[in-house]
Amino acid sequence: MLKLFSQTGWRFLWLALITFVLDQYTKGLIVEHIELYQAVQVNSFFNLTHVYNYGAAFSFLHDAGGWQRWFFSVVAFAVVAMLLWWLKQLSRAQIILPVAFCLIIGGALGNVYDRLVLGHVVDFLVVYYQEWVWPAFNVADSAICLGAVLLIVDMFKNKEQKND
User: Fold this and answer.
1) Which of 51, 80, 143, 153 has the fewest other C-beta atoms within 10 Å?
2) CA 86 to CA 101: how far, in whole Å?
3) How confident is the model over 38-51, as pLDDT tens digits?
4) Among the residues of the chain, which ranges form H helices?
5) Which of 23, 63, 114, 123 is catalytic?
6) Is 141 labeled as catalytic in the residue annotation?
7) What pTM was estimated for this model as a whole?
């Protein structure tokens, strides 16, 4: 069993766990210390604002009546299962791809935990410039985005290696 973890992409699953714990910890701090809809200005372009997201990215389907909670949870579990299977297939030589997968897994599980336990996702990071405001997000969303960027980096890196 130990060989399976050390020789495959599963050796990075600690990163998914850290992502999940950090996400839940920061959400807990926000819920405990900032009232719902309260904004705490950090600097001229960044607020901590306690909000709930009943939908997906950019509040997609937030007002769909409740079924979306279960739909997004099933989709998240399916993605996590698929990524875990892919992680198992990766060789020890690969680094960027398993890191990307583990960030996505940790982020997905952080948000699905909120959906299943709370019925919504806690968001609190808000970036803005003058009248332009990016939708609120959280650590899990950030990890998923970073994982997606690393997937793109890996794709270009592997393309260059194949062309050599």
Assistant:
1) 153
2) 9
3) 999 999 999 999 99
4) 2-7, 13-33, 67-89, 96-118, 139-163
5) 123
6) yes
7) 0.87
